[in-house]
What we know:
By secondary structure, this protein is an all-alpha fold.
Amino acid sequence: xxxxxxxxxxxxxxxxxxxxxxxxxxxxxxxxxxxxxxxxxxxxxxxxxxxxxxxxxxxxxxxxxxxxxxxxxxxxxxxxxxxxxxxxxxxxxxxxxxxxxxxxxxxxxxxxxxxxxxxxxxxxxxxxxxxxxxxxxxxxxxxxxxxxxxxxxxxxxxxxxxxxxx
Length: 166
């Protein structure tokens, strides 16, 4: 697992730092990829991440890579976002078991679509409340780590240059 993380996550981040991309831009890209990657509407995150990259001038590969890595987390968080939205709006808890959803679809397609629309809106509301705080926290954590990593890479580069000159 550690080799996978080093090869697929840490390695590309080091490469970005060595290319001269600032820790701030990388931290923004990573935080955006995670926060937008867990948006509770399936199929929307790639577009959201692309729009954020274009609007903020971020690194598209880094943002999309993180977005794809958090896809399982998005699936896990859809129901909690919906429940949080129900709590925020003080609406009754909607039954969401698969048999219940199938029964609603079989009984009345229009009612099922309305229900899914309401649930999606509730999930989006909860995400909108939570996302700014999560983004800020993730950005600060990534920025601190990336500044340290950039300094370490710079020390190694300086040491190699010093040895090469000797």
